[in-house]
Amino acid sequence: MRLQKKTYSFYIFNLRPFFGLKLYSISFYLFLFVHLEMVYSQESLPLTGNFSNTPLSSVIEYIESESGYRMFYLDKWITSDSISLDFNNEEVESLLEKILLKTELNYYIKEDEKRIFIIKNAIIYDELPDGFFKDSTKEEEESSIGQPSNAPPPTFYNEDIRPTTKKYPVARIGKSDPNNLQLEYTLSGKAINSVTGEPVPDLTIRVKNADRFVITDSNGNFSIQLSSGYNILVVRAMGIASMEREVIMYNDGNLDLFLEEGLQQLDEVVVQADAARNVEDADTGSEQIDSEASKNIPLVLGERDILQVAKALPGISSAGEGATGLNVRGGKTDQNLVLLDDAVIYNPQHFFGIFQALNPFTTKGVDIYKGAMPVEFGGRLSSVFDIRTKNGNVEKLAGEGSIGPVTGNLALEIPIVKEKSSLVVGGRGAYADWILRSLDEPSLNNSNASFFDGIVKYHHKINDNNEVKATAYYSKDAFSITSDSLYNYDNRLFSLRWDRKMGERTTTAMVLGNSNYGFGIDFDGQANTDFNLDYSINETEFKYKFRTLLNERNTLDYGISAKYYSVNPGSIRPDGNESSISTILIDNEQALEGALFLGDEFKLNDRLLLDLGVRYAFFAALGPGTQQRYQEGLPKNESTAQETISYDGAEIIKTYGGPEARVSARYLFTPDFSIKASFNNSYQFLHTLSNNTTVSPIDTWKLSDLNIAPQTGYQASLGLYKNFKENEYELSLEGYYKGMDNVLDFKTGADLFLNENVETEVLQGDGKAYGVEFLAKKNRGDLNGWLSYTYSRSLYRFDSEFSEERINNGEFFPSNFDRPHDVSVITNYRITRRYSLSANFVYQTGRPVTYPIGTFRFNNADFVAFSDRNEFRIPDFYRLDLGLNIEGNHKKNKLAHSFVTISVYNVLGRNNPYSVFFVTENGEVKALQSSIFAIPIPSITYNFKF
């Protein structure tokens, strides 16, 4: 005989399956309280044996047959887990502890009756905790169950009175531990589209009747603190059917939410993150665009284009109509990090920037960071464009496509393993030659152009904790502006990503990516000057990042990244034996770039949220190669070169690096009104060399080395954010200031391409940019859209004691893309469920230009005297586009659902100048203007989806 006293707690447990009783509230205690204090029972016999991959159900049957106890449980509670265990003279209680350790099962032993009850999630009290029937005034007093008096009381839930209208079963999370009862537990999980299998980002998960919520990240993951016991989660997002989910928390645990699509998504023009995200997050200067949002915005030739939509947001512009590259908050185009599924894409646009190089039907959306940059990103001064592709449909074959006047697109979603894996395949091509012939430029009438791009993405969910994604992408442009030259450029990338859950609080992502960009010119003239010219840059990156929920207030992001660059600076070779062109080969460049990063999203209280991070960036230029050393204190040119230094393979030429700060804060005045501030600084070790206004195909990327230092910069921003009428309306006002060092520009008449000593042709100076951005947005209703206004300045200064290294006498001057005023209006009016009208209006200050201001004669020759660089401006730019959108009928059982867009680009026929150039005729200097689209451009595009 032995004396045994057991105390357990019972949480939300229905005893009817055992006893056939209908119990309410606390009545079940009357059955359990047979003995409240001491219970005498016979000594149980110890057990000896071993299990080898034995099913749990068999283990329980063995214990029942050998121990003399009767076991009570429901078969559906017993998992399919297998047990491997050696045991010798093991007590029944100890053996049960071991075999149930990794399950959600607890047990209760009733010694006097030789019965063992297997219980899922819950534990059982055979004593009531102190203060159960009245409030306890002793805050620190230990109760009779061994827990503090502020431990959570037992929770009661009657399954029988649960409304039959509830769609989802009650989710019971975790396993109660009598030695670690808490008032709150952590629920983690992932939001998943139940039809497509894709994660649902930016989904708001709120606790009903409590001021507590969380927003899913870009991969659909979430983590939220819930009270012990019964909770109701309310889930809402645009395009997702609202859902309430009952959750009972026994301990920390995981719950994936499978969500259904909502029909309301057809009513939206702007598919945004959660409606309150702009107020609640700590990010400044962040924007989100869903690819579906662009279908109702009239763009050139009916093409959906998220990058063109981005230009309608405050702080984002371009050098002009048809210009490749985006200028973000006064930064150069090379200061943007553009990622496609975690791999860099160097030129994400086709055909002089008129089209994006992304299939709109495989693209899910883009996160844009132009202020507070996440701690994992670096290497650029201005912004990050994090473009994501869709996961394929894991249930059935699906597809989407379009046929327009210039391009044809098609995307297929192919299930590989049902509910686990899928393949997305997308391709598009252009038949755009007629556009060049329609432009207001006689020299282009005989030109031709074509482009295509293709993408393949494989997505596989291995299990609840592991997910793998792989993306391969290729695009190519080929065009001939003259009859003797064929220009071509291409992008190629591959990325592999493994997402993994490491326990309940930590998720990881391991990323491997490779990117390549190159261009070439094939010249075939009448003289013996035929040649082939090419250039390329290749990079390979490995990144391993972690996200850990430390507690309710702290979430850590940390990791490491490493990148290897290989640059072919250019080569030219004769084409054919008859060519008189000499071969020129520039030495390749190599470099390593790495970073360590750590960030903490720290919630001080319900009002104040901090996002603090530090990133250490490192760069090393590597051999083999040669570098010139110049006399200190003198301009870099041939006459000041002192020596040529040779470096062996993998030898370090020069290193750079330093810490980068990522600091942002949000303070909530009310749930729909906040103020945010941020500061960050960055290093950029990669530069473009160009003396053109736009990013032309012959622009080259240059690594920092012995003579060209990395660009550095910092940005501070402050903003106010306010939502109205249950987040139907948004207002934001944000100001920023950006300082930059070692920005590159070129000397007058510089020869940048195929130059072995290119450092003698460029200058490095200071830059500053500042501005104010205003955004007003209406998210719902028949009339919706947004108005954005940006006042901004972008200024550079190149000063030196030597005149050849000085521009505009060393004073600040406007950059090529300085546009003080920028206004965009996007509207959509839904006439019926099938018909809607949309409009897009843009106004911008004319960009800076350098004008001739006189002529002079020297040595019997006429010369033109020019103004200071960018002293004047071309005329202001404005454009109005209109569109009619026609949905097909909404019958469910159709072969394909259709969507037709009829649009007119540049309705007013505004002859917006793209550039102004000057020619001399009969001794007279004349100014000429070139435009891209000087007349209205109508188009009709047919879209289909199945």
Automatic annotation (TrEMBL):
<keyword id="KW-0813">Transport</keyword>
<dbReference type="InterPro" id="IPR039426">
    <property type="entry name" value="TonB-dep_rcpt-like"/>
</dbReference>
<keyword id="KW-0472">Membrane</keyword>
<protein>
    <submittedName>
        <fullName>TonB-dependent receptor</fullName>
    </submittedName>
</protein>
<dbReference type="InterPro" id="IPR008969">
    <property type="entry name" value="CarboxyPept-like_regulatory"/>
</dbReference>
<keyword id="KW-1133">Transmembrane helix</keyword>
<keyword id="KW-0675">Receptor</keyword>
<dbReference type="InterPro" id="IPR036942">
    <property type="entry name" value="Beta-barrel_TonB_sf"/>
</dbReference>
<keyword id="KW-0798">TonB box</keyword>
<feature type="region of interest" description="Disordered">
    <location>
        <begin position="136"/>
        <end position="161"/>
    </location>
</feature>
<dbReference type="InterPro" id="IPR012910">
    <property type="entry name" value="Plug_dom"/>
</dbReference>
<feature type="domain" description="TonB-dependent receptor-like beta-barrel">
    <location>
        <begin position="454"/>
        <end position="906"/>
    </location>
</feature>
<feature type="transmembrane region" description="Helical">
    <location>
        <begin position="21"/>
        <end position="40"/>
    </location>
</feature>
<dbReference type="InterPro" id="IPR037066">
    <property type="entry name" value="Plug_dom_sf"/>
</dbReference>
<feature type="domain" description="TonB-dependent receptor plug">
    <location>
        <begin position="302"/>
        <end position="380"/>
    </location>
</feature>
<dbReference type="InterPro" id="IPR000531">
    <property type="entry name" value="Beta-barrel_TonB"/>
</dbReference>
<keyword id="KW-0812">Transmembrane</keyword>
<dbReference type="Pfam" id="PF13715">
    <property type="entry name" value="CarbopepD_reg_2"/>
</dbReference>
<keyword id="KW-1134">Transmembrane beta strand</keyword>
<keyword id="KW-0998">Cell outer membrane</keyword>
<dbReference type="GO" id="GO:0009279">
    <property type="term" value="C:cell outer membrane"/>
</dbReference>
<dbReference type="Pfam" id="PF07715">
    <property type="entry name" value="Plug"/>
</dbReference>
<dbReference type="Pfam" id="PF00593">
    <property type="entry name" value="TonB_dep_Rec_b-barrel"/>
</dbReference>
<comment type="similarity">
    <text>Belongs to the TonB-dependent receptor family.</text>
</comment>
